Amino acid sequence: MKKSILILLFASILFACQTDDDIPLTYEEGTNEYVNDWIYTQMKRYYYWNESMPGKGNLSLPPKEYFATLVNKNDRFSYAIHTSSPETFPQSLQNSFGFDLSFIEYEGQVYGVVMYALSNSPAERNGLERGQLINAIGGTALSQGNYNSLYQNLLTAKEVKLQVVSYSEKSGFTAPKQINISQGFTFSQPVFSQVIPYQNHIVGYIEIPHFNAGLSKSLLKEFQTFKNQSVNEIVVDLRYNGGGDVSSAAALSVLLAPNIQSSNPFIRFKGNSNGGEVNQTFKESLEMNESQVSFEALRAAHPQTQRVYVLCGSHTASASEIIINNLKPFMEVITIGEKTVGKDVASFAVEDDRIVGAQAKWVLYPAIYKLFNANGEGNYAAGLQPNVVLNEFQKLEVFPLGNTNEVLLHQALNSISGNGRMMKAITTQTLQKQNLSIISEPMVIKKIWH
């Protein structure tokens, strides 16, 4: 009897000592609490900065707002989307219309310069071209006081109305015309390459808009052409490449780097205490998503080159920065342009699959790994500073990518020929865009996890 009373007394004391935090909570499916509790659990497991995360906090917040409360102050890239809510997706002119702008001032007038119009995009189909100058948006003339707000309005617009002029040093300005562009789809972009005989050199120029999964086949074809035409210098244009698939970046690295073996270390992924560190060789990185083209086939197409010139800028991010940082232990990498974005983190998609068969769901893209090269060099969150700092819009006349008169390519060709003289005639002043956030696609990797 005494023993039974003691057991009951101990159980009642134990129950009384339990707090609300000790009792697992369950939430009704479909509520913010249901979603946010899942978000917190996933971030606590995968997020690189999980140890600095706050407590659960207010689980009743809208999920996208709640996710933002968990993100480290140094993290510019993690985000969450709901697959049936386009308003939760990262927004950019490139995603909506297939182009983007830089802003300059020339003789007191502010212009938007078309940096690119993607192939078969709504922008290109309506006549927009690289180098065109925009002097009015939605009927409002651009000025120092309004260009930033007008640009921000474009990011959420369904249609854009642009007043456009062109300029050349020979003929001056054309008459203005209006171009209207509605939102639409833009599909995968082709790789552009050409062989440029320049003085005593044969230069292979290749412009890569994005590192798509499966890109290795196209890269192999282009480099076989380079090798067949005895190319002895390579210029890789990554100024508008925001990243993508690590395996296709590894494929380009295998084609470029001299004297490497399949077992040479290529990349290090450093995660939190749960994920640990994952080291991959060139072959292992290639085979994550590019198994249809072998390491040996790519090596056979390597031209007789010992260095690479990379054209870069404020849109060069993620897998493109891997090309710059991770080739440095194996070859000379000469960068020309402006500082890169500084995305030294990788992520994989974390999907809420608790409801079987659900098509509409939350998907997280948290920063999971920090990235380093074979020598352990990384930590370039502030961006990679180029060897030759050069503004591609220093002149009002802007040439197409691949044109030998184009500022960055012209500088690379001068450097190759031994004439490193910089262009001196600066006629424009570049204006800073005040972006609401850094728009960068998630780096595509398989789920590497211990």
UniProtKB/TrEMBL annotation:
Chain ranges passing through the membrane: none
Keywords, sorted A to Z: Signal
Record keyword Protein transport present: no
Top-level taxonomic group: Bacteria
One matching Pfam family: Peptidase_S41
Signal peptide location: 1-16
CDD domains: Peptidase_S41_CPP_like
Ranges for domain Tail specific protease: 174-391
Gene3D superfamilies: 2-enoyl-CoA Hydratase, Chain A, domain 1, 2.30.42.10, 3.30.750.170
Coiled coil: none
PANTHER family given in the database record: CARBOXY-TERMINAL PROCESSING PROTEASE CTPA, TAIL-SPECIFIC PROTEASE
Record-given protein name: S41 family peptidase
Organism whose genome encodes this protein: Flavobacterium artemisiae
